[in-house]
What does this fold into?
Amino acid sequence: MRFDGNSSRAVNYEPNSFGGPTQDRSYIERPHAISGTVARHDHRTDTDYHTQPGNLFRLMPADAKQRLIGNIVSSLGNGVPQRIQELQIQHFYKADPAYGTGVATGLGLSIESIVAKAKQASAAD
It folds into this structure.
């Protein structure tokens, strides 16, 4: 049990938007040759982060979808900067438009403007 405050509300994950901790590459293990080569898998090489959660969302019954959206809205609406809310909504929308729209509506944000911002950002890249 910790009695030191456990870093309070400080960010403890990576990547983050608040200057929190980053991976220390000095601890990465070098590959070891066996009957092939083993190394840590770089999960950041994947590009599809939205199909599987979208499929799961679409499998849920309507009441479960509403509970999920309600839980997310109550968490994201609790002092989270609007910029972070919009970034998350973009992910939910990519998984399933109804998912992103539900969260945006619950937070009182315009899904149309969030989607437009995402399109502008991807066009600039």
